[in-house]
Amino acid sequence: MNGNSSDKARKIAKESLDKLANDLEAGKSEALKQYLATMSRFHRYSWNNVLLISSQNPQATHVAGFHAWHDLGRSVRKGEKGIMILAPMVVKGDQQDPDKELKARGRLVGFRTAYVFDIAQTDGRPLPAFAQTTGDPKEYTDELKRIATARGVAIEYDASIAPALGMSSGGRIRLMPDLPKAEEFAVLAHELAHEAMHHDKSVERLPKVVRETQAEAVAFVVSHAVGLETNHAAADYIALYNGDKKTLIESLAKIQETSAKILEELLPEHTRADGQSHTPSSPSSPSATPLQDLASVSSDLPAHPDPLPEQISLDR
Questions:
Q1: pTM over 0.70
Q2: Which of 5, 35, 15 lies closest to 256, judged by CA?
Q3: Cα atoms found within 13 Å of the Cα of residue 115, Cβ hemisphere only
Q4: Cβ atoms within 10 A of the Cβ of 104, count?
Q5: Helices (H), the chain
Q6: 308 domain-assigned
Q7: Are 10 and 147 found together in one domain?
Q8: Are residues 157 and 95 in the same domain?
Q9: Winning range, highest mean pLDDT, from 182-186, 198-202, 270-274
Q10: 191 with 182: CB under 8 angstroms?
Q11: Which of 124, 146, 168 is the last residue of a domain?
Q12: Which among 165, 171, 177 is positioned nearest to 212, based on CA atoms?
């Protein structure tokens, strides 16, 4: 690719990143707020209970007690067999105890058998869904796979990576089978970005929030460029890792460079020297703020105002 082609690919990337920056500045979407509120109702289980759940129902995804499901607007179907776990038994702390934390927290005296049910054993109101990329990637998924293969990256489908949708391990990308077509494309673009940016052992490993912001921003650009509707999926995903507009701006050069290289191979008809740069669904909002202007004020932006719980994370 010549210089003009590279410039056009960078222009496509910049137009999409303008939109992503504005989405991040707007804060968590209503869909994400509802999703987080619901997910907070599901407990983090001990390793022993994870093993118990897995041994009894390997396909379980979201488990909760009978009454917890009722509170979420769902009911356990008649005849369903519960998944046995061990629930802690805690007695109130001695009010005379000088240890204030122990007094407030109570004292563990043992465990009892309790039962939970997977969402597949229930009926009722749908749980709020995490935002997804939608649309038809057409032949571009196969093209993206070809690009990965040409870079020496093997692609496999592996259901055992659940609840992750995709994983990158340096020369190997694993994807969940049977993803919706648009989501498969976006996840593959995300993992290919990890392959391009985050497996160089000679470079100091970046914090996870930076790695995930970079990879998801690249996926956003590439998905947007092939005409997919990204909704709030990218901004919400970045927010889950406590990323924000400032995190995005600090990585702009790396994101734009990686996005442009993928687009040069994926969309040669839009980045060739004699053509016009084109982004299907190109953002045209009059409120969009050019990223070069955003960069100049990034040092004044506050850190993410509302850190999200670590346990609520969705590895791509």
A1: no
A2: 15
A3: 8
A4: 10
A5: 3-25, 30-39, 47-56, 66-71, 100-105, 140-150, 181-197, 208-225, 233-240, 245-250, 252-266, 268-271, 291-297
A6: no
A7: yes
A8: no
A9: 182-186
A10: no
A11: 124
A12: 165
Q: Which residues contact 256 (CB under 8 A, 6 or more apart)?
A: 10, 13, 14, 17
* CB 174 within 8 Å of CB 156: yes
As a whole number, mean pLDDT of residues 52-81 equals 90
Q: List pLDDT tens digits, range 77-94.
A: 999 999 999 988 888 765
Range of the domain at 88: 37-124
Q: Is 249 exposed, middle or buried (0-12, 13-18, 19+ CB in 10 A)?
A: buried
Verify cis geometry, omega within 30 degrees of 0, for the bond prior to 307. no
**Residue 313 lies inside a defined structural domain of this protein:** no
Count of structural domains, the chain: 2
Same domain, 120 and 228: no
Give residue-wise pLDDT tens across range 3-33: 666 777 877 887 788 888 888 877 777 776 7
* Cβ atoms 222, 262 nearer than 8 A: yes
Instruction: Please report whether residue 22 resides in a domain.
Output: yes
Indicate if 157 and 242 belong to the same structural domain: yes
> Among 105, 81, 75, which Cα is nearest to 91's?
105
* 71 shares its domain with 220: no
Whether residues 172 and 268 fall in one domain? yes
Task: Decide which of 108, 124, 140 is a domain's last residue.
Answer: 124
CA–CA separation, 72 vs 65, rounded Å?
11
Through-space distance between the first and last CA atoms of the chain, rounded to whole angstroms: 30
